[in-house]
Amino acid sequence: MRKTNDNVNHSQENNEDGVLDLIHTVMHQYRSMQYQALRDGPHDITHMEGKVLSYFGHYPGSTQSDLAKHSGRDKAQLARLIKGLRDQGLLDAVADESDKRNVRLTLTTDGQSVLTTLRQQAKRLNTLALQAMDSQEQQQLLQLLQRVKVNLDTGT
User: Fold this and answer.
1) Residues 49-54: what's their mean pLDDT?
2) Could you state a single Gene Ontology molecular function term (predicted)?
3) CA gap 84, 43 in Å, rounded
4) Number of domains in the chain
5) For residue 128, what are the domain limits?
6) CATH number reported for the structural domain that contains residue 39 in this entry
7) Least buried of 29, 111, 117, 152, by fewest C-beta within 10 Å?
8) Does 8 reside within a domain?
9) Threshold 0.85, pTM exceeds
């Protein structure tokens, strides 16, 4: 099969467009490589499922409402994600002692294992991505990306 180049979404003529396209491409590549470690195992999870696991890994015993406030995501979407993770045995739910209408969510042993794998893979990919840069170049890249973020945050 012949290798083709997708030039539709990767303009090299306009540096402003090219920078954001490249950031987008790098993030897709990073996510693909990060989740590759799980695809061959029993838990083929999505990026959003990984984010949900990470949240409950940081805030065990939180509720779906806590996650919705934190993420700004639609409650129905989160309910489907949480149900799927519970069905896979990655999240455990316990009724809140003080308010039985609330369900407290924590990672199961399998959920913690998946989260550990994701964190290890993220660390490995960070090292891989920055391996040819010295600490000054890494710091410069970080500062430039922070400036891009600030520009986007303050722009309307």
Assistant:
1) 94
2) DNA-binding transcription factor activity
3) 11
4) 1
5) 15-154
6) 1.10.10.10
7) 152
8) no
9) no
